[in-house]
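Batch 3, record 17
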Amino acid sequence: MKTVYFFQSQFSYDLKSAKQYWFPYTAGTLWVYANQNLSDWQLGGIQYKRDNIQDYIDSIEKIDLACFCTYVWNKEYNIEMSQAIKKKFPKCHISFGGPQVTEQYLEFSDSICLGEGEVSLVELMTDINMDRSTKTIYQNSRMPTLDNLPSPYTQGVFDSMVQAEPGTKWAAVFETNRGCPYSCTFCEWGGLTASKIFQFDMKRIQAELEWFRDNPVAVIFLADANFGIFKDRDLQIAKQMNATLQGSALEYVSMNYAKNSNQRVFEIAKILGTVSKGITISVQSMNPDTLKVIKRQNMKVNNFADMMKLAEEYNTYTYTELILGLPLETKETWKQGLTNLMELGQHNKIFIQKGLLLPNTDWAKVQQEQYNIETVSIYDFIPGVEQYENDKEHAEFVVSTNTMSRQDMHESFMYGWMCEQMHYNGYSQIIAKWLKTKHNVNYKSFYDCMFEMIVNAPDIKHEYNRISSAYLELQQTGKVSVDGILTNTLEIVSRKVFYQMYDSCINFAIQVGKQFASIPQEVIELQRRFLKNTQYTTPYTVNLDVNFETQECIDTSYNVIDIQEYHTSFTTGTEVTRGGMKRNYFIYENINT
Ligand SMILES: C[S@@+](CC[C@H](N)C(=O)[O-])C[C@H]1O[C@@H](n2cnc3c(N)ncnc32)[C@H](O)[C@@H]1O
Ligand code: SF4
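Prediction for the assembled complex:
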């Protein structure tokens, strides 16, 4: 009997003050598939934390094959672990697989598995078992059906982990299908699976949901690239999730909604109820030239506006993801894009992702040279990680392109930061909307003006300078040593600071607004009550001369009725939540009619 170990190490995450780990789903899936097809192998173990390497090696008595499931967050650890294994067990076959792996990994291993891993692993294990010479690269076409792939959850692979870790909350990867029909150049997923989507059997899906219900699963990450792409099936899955997981430990469900989304995704969010984190309506860039070269057949801009209307109708929280540093983006297209999102009705939230050049993408393989993309290695970059201890993991962070110098990138980052803090977190949103409706001041003019003034804004300028120097340091060194900021908190660390200077933020927004028109007291009152603040009581009524919803200059009464908690899943019990700010809720009433 030969012995295989899997390595899929991860950091622990901080989830509502409890420690959280991901089930090593990839390793578990590989093992159950191999175990189903081969009878002469036993599982030594699945290593899934950042254990002390020597301690872990000391616990191994026999190992014939070590499989390393490798991605951007564990490659350095895996390399170190593999070298230590080889030293103690020179005959052990070392194999690397996962989205991060390229032929360069042969330097550290006996073989690599490229693409979908299950069939390649069985081939490798058979070669080892039969004492055949092994290949250096295993690569097979994707499995034509997923019907024969057992679930590691229901097969009990993770049961001992749950038992060994009482009090830990678990995050589970949940696959209902595999594959993505798109091939966005920045994304490893599309590059690896581009084309047909294969579906898992509904019986397996239901059985996994029941397993999640019966175990301390606090987070489900739906790993489909485009959930909602299958009309009846995905609605049915959402219904089953809702029905099965009632009363379980589940706190939230995270998912990638279908790229060309429509009404269906709102239906799904509605069915999921409070565990839904909101709907992602991702654009990555609003620049048509960029969208073309990143091969992203984007939703039409008009469609985006329709989606925002649907969001209002369904009273659903939406957020939009963008990546800074994509090809052909300039600082002007970036600023225009951010404010266009507001013009199209996105006032809830944006996520600006740090552009990371991932090795198996066309962005890295083809476009880096084409667009003269310069990167630096950044450390401590994984969001939500509880603690780093001088960790060596790093990723390649885009700092300039042939259309964006380092200086432009810095300016674009700071502009995005300002929009997030002031508009999306709410301190200037009402004033900006009022100026837009009443005086036709577009969002770009308003926020360009704010950007000029922010460097001298009382109180806020200090936070501006803190973030600005942290970003510059990151660009130059790949690390941040500015007081209180980590690379992985750079985008969110100001939220709390802004809330602590609530009055300064609103006064600053008024000052910016006054550059365009005098701001009536009622608008200021409504602005002050937009965010939850115990200084101000609800319910409260303000009469304005505009209606933001219809964008008409008609007298409207705004009844500020209650706290609308936008981020149930992320609430930390204060006004500042991990997902964003808590806002009050307005009921509009047209008082002219
Ligand atoms: C894995 S993608 C899936 C999203 C979904 N399929 C879509 O296209 O909207 C999730 C998010 O990760 C971010 N992302 C993907 N690749 C990235 C990269 N190389 N650098 C930075 N962010 C990236 C993008 O913002 C994307 O919206
Ligand atoms: S970004 Fe989304 S749509 Fe594009 S390739 Fe990746 S998973 Fe597919």
